[in-house]
Amino acid sequence: MPVDYSVYLVTDRGILGGRDLFKAVEDAIKGGASLLQLREKDISSRAFYDLAVKMKDLANSYDVPLIINDRLDIALAVDADGLHIGQDDIPLRIAREIMGPDKIIGYSVSNPEQALFGEKNGADYLGAGPVYATGSKADAGLPIGPGTLKTIKDSVSIPVVAIGGVGITNISEVKKTGVDGISVISAILGKLDIVEAAKNITGLWKDI
Amino acid sequence: MPVDYSVYLVTDRGILGGRDLFKAVEDAIKGGASLLQLREKDISSRAFYDLAVKMKDLANSYDVPLIINDRLDIALAVDADGLHIGQDDIPLRIAREIMGPDKIIGYSVSNPEQALFGEKNGADYLGAGPVYATGSKADAGLPIGPGTLKTIKDSVSIPVVAIGGVGITNISEVKKTGVDGISVISAILGKLDIVEAAKNITGLWKDI
Ligand code: NI
């Protein structure tokens, strides 16, 4: 089954201000999120595992694949659909060896060299960015802009998802680069009405 | 090859006060440390991986097995000799399934119920403690004392290693419980002359 990268929700409990993570994710999926990444920092492995078990049930009950950020062990332990790794995570080629050929592996890149490296070393898709400035990830680095995003997209043949600061005001500009989807945190989870926010984003992505 | 649990060194870069981790570990092995656990918190997965690659080379060049704390993904990625998990880490049974039957898996316990659970669910050895108060692990919990340590040892048939605050002043008391070894951080890495400290600890353990 081909993966739908169009509206790729990445979780961030911090942005929910105490609202329930599972309710928020379910609302985002009801609104059209097509792919889900569970991203956690600074919690125990057991807490991450417990969240991931519940999240997998939820995502898969909606036929949405669950990708785990960074932690290959959690991805294996819950038999997640995939793993997303960045430049600070374990080497891509080793992740691919351990995960096997059937799991989805995503790789974060911010320039064409990293993109080519990712394509060559077993990534199924690339997360390219941060396209714009973002408050969601403290370690995100400087914005690459839509120009470099397009260069990255044009340099590889695997799907590319735009990451970082993408929302209703710039979604048109992003889609023109030819990328396969957008990765969204605050434009969905940062809104009071998450179903509505996800519908708006999904609608805009499809209509543009 | 049977594992020698007698003097089990657990790393802690914090206690080294800037001294080189690899030099310190090599000195501890030269002094008699028989088993090595790489324990890291709050570093990126890539940084942990890079440390583990180097540590595996070092440990295995001295025929000392390398155990990775908590992170099953790092253990798999560097093909470490084993994994040590605690109550806050991924479930023991799942770790065993993923690691397979041949890798060493250790499990932290602080009472006989956890010890029996560990033995039943695939642990090769138990780390029991903290036996005494310790400054090395902020999350260590209240000391169980040598009495409970002995109860734990008597309740299982797999090897038990005493963890937490074990050093030259109490090593005799610990050995009388019948445990198979001691897990040491500060009593070796906290000393200026690490070779000498490890020789003292190893000598005491063997002579008592
Ligand atoms: Ni990471």
Automatic annotation (TrEMBL), chains A, B:
<dbReference type="Pfam" id="PF02581">
    <property type="entry name" value="TMP-TENI"/>
</dbReference>
<keyword id="KW-0784">Thiamine biosynthesis</keyword>
<dbReference type="InterPro" id="IPR022998">
    <property type="entry name" value="ThiamineP_synth_TenI"/>
</dbReference>
<feature type="binding site">
    <location>
        <position position="70"/>
    </location>
    <ligand>
        <name>Mg(2+)</name>
    </ligand>
</feature>
<feature type="binding site">
    <location>
        <position position="108"/>
    </location>
    <ligand>
        <name>4-amino-2-methyl-5-(diphosphooxymethyl)pyrimidine</name>
    </ligand>
</feature>
<feature type="binding site">
    <location>
        <begin position="134"/>
        <end position="136"/>
    </location>
    <ligand>
        <name>2-[(2R,5Z)-2-carboxy-4-methylthiazol-5(2H)-ylidene]ethyl phosphate</name>
    </ligand>
</feature>
<feature type="binding site">
    <location>
        <position position="165"/>
    </location>
    <ligand>
        <name>2-[(2R,5Z)-2-carboxy-4-methylthiazol-5(2H)-ylidene]ethyl phosphate</name>
    </ligand>
</feature>
<keyword id="KW-0460">Magnesium</keyword>
<dbReference type="GO" id="GO:0004789">
    <property type="term" value="F:thiamine-phosphate diphosphorylase activity"/>
</dbReference>
<feature type="binding site">
    <location>
        <position position="89"/>
    </location>
    <ligand>
        <name>Mg(2+)</name>
    </ligand>
</feature>
<dbReference type="GO" id="GO:0000287">
    <property type="term" value="F:magnesium ion binding"/>
</dbReference>
<feature type="binding site">
    <location>
        <begin position="37"/>
        <end position="41"/>
    </location>
    <ligand>
        <name>4-amino-2-methyl-5-(diphosphooxymethyl)pyrimidine</name>
    </ligand>
</feature>
<feature type="binding site">
    <location>
        <position position="137"/>
    </location>
    <ligand>
        <name>4-amino-2-methyl-5-(diphosphooxymethyl)pyrimidine</name>
    </ligand>
</feature>
<dbReference type="InterPro" id="IPR034291">
    <property type="entry name" value="TMP_synthase"/>
</dbReference>
<dbReference type="InterPro" id="IPR013785">
    <property type="entry name" value="Aldolase_TIM"/>
</dbReference>
<dbReference type="GO" id="GO:0009228">
    <property type="term" value="P:thiamine biosynthetic process"/>
</dbReference>
<keyword id="KW-0479">Metal-binding</keyword>
<comment type="similarity">
    <text>Belongs to the thiamine-phosphate synthase family.</text>
</comment>
<feature type="binding site">
    <location>
        <position position="69"/>
    </location>
    <ligand>
        <name>4-amino-2-methyl-5-(diphosphooxymethyl)pyrimidine</name>
    </ligand>
</feature>
<dbReference type="GO" id="GO:0009229">
    <property type="term" value="P:thiamine diphosphate biosynthetic process"/>
</dbReference>
<comment type="function">
    <text>Condenses 4-methyl-5-(beta-hydroxyethyl)thiazole monophosphate (THZ-P) and 2-methyl-4-amino-5-hydroxymethyl pyrimidine pyrophosphate (HMP-PP) to form thiamine monophosphate (TMP).</text>
</comment>
<dbReference type="InterPro" id="IPR036206">
    <property type="entry name" value="ThiamineP_synth_sf"/>
</dbReference>
<comment type="pathway">
    <text>Cofactor biosynthesis; thiamine diphosphate biosynthesis; thiamine phosphate from 4-amino-2-methyl-5-diphosphomethylpyrimidine and 4-methyl-5-(2-phosphoethyl)-thiazole: step 1/1.</text>
</comment>
<feature type="binding site">
    <location>
        <begin position="185"/>
        <end position="186"/>
    </location>
    <ligand>
        <name>2-[(2R,5Z)-2-carboxy-4-methylthiazol-5(2H)-ylidene]ethyl phosphate</name>
    </ligand>
</feature>
<protein>
    <recommendedName>
        <fullName>Thiamine-phosphate synthase</fullName>
        <ecNumber>2.5.1.3</ecNumber>
    </recommendedName>
</protein>
<dbReference type="GO" id="GO:0005737">
    <property type="term" value="C:cytoplasm"/>
</dbReference>
<keyword id="KW-0808">Transferase</keyword>
<feature type="domain" description="Thiamine phosphate synthase/TenI">
    <location>
        <begin position="7"/>
        <end position="188"/>
    </location>
</feature>
